[in-house]
Task: structure prediction
Amino acid sequence: MCLCVPSPVSPHPAIALPTDTNSPAHTAPHSNHRLRENPRQTHPPHAQQLHSPPSSDRLSARLEKHELRAILESIRDGRLDVDQGVSRLRAWPVRDLGHSQLDTHRRVRCGQAEVVFGQGKTPQQILEIARALLDHHDRLLVTRAAPEAALLLASELPHAVHHPTARCVTVEPENGLEEEGLVLVISAGTSDEPVAEEAAITARLSGAHVERIRDAGVAGLHRLLAHTERLQAARALVVVAGMEGALPSVVAGLVDRPVIAVPTSVGYGASFGGVAALLAMLNSCASGVAVVNIDNGFGAGTMAAMINRRTEVTKR
Result:
């Protein structure tokens, strides 16, 4: 299954479904199902960090490794013959669904499960992939989910939550997420929100405590400077901007933490669908700026969560 970096798309989703708290509610046509709205889009400023029992994230990964070790030790000790061991391990590296081959071993190797890139897949394919992943993992993230796919997932998966602004669908562990550290996601303008929310949701589902600063572009720099203490407290910062793409350079000049810049396809003609912002960020004069692809909130959120997680390990 290929989960490539999303290609540039318009940041203005056409969602005819119930929306989050920042959008007016809509009802999906020709359906008796209502999507579960996200009870909380990522944490608002100064929100308290959620502390869940350590049974959700690290424990689940440890259990997977423990199960693998138990199978191998059983074969070694003769309590399980080789054919039985092969049968049990068959679905570990790959689960073949015909249209997709799921990497069910990714969480053991990389610390987080495979994510579903919904664009270009049919709703039924996404549902089959989602069910298979949930057979192995306690959480699910589907990015670039079309309205009809989100509706199907919400009706078929009991705990699925649709995030229409981010165009994502998530399933969280039953005991909640164990959040740590601080990833700060900053958007230059309201038009950048779909990409910023995708980054924030991705980082949070990957175990990071996430906070947001919205609409703090360089046209009104005082809006950003009012949050200087929060900027300096974050372990990693995701900065999302279209137009001329100057905001990541400004943020990087205020902090000693990694800044992950995300260009968006927001802007008038000469922005070239985000290319202008991309080139500006790649040519940043501020140190400590890394750049992901245009509109790639998922890639930025993943990178920020990895930095956040390694910082926590280093502290221990």
Observations:
- Confidence is low (pLDDT under 50) at residues 1-36, 39-61.
- The longest helix spans residues 58-76.
- The radius of gyration is 20 Å.
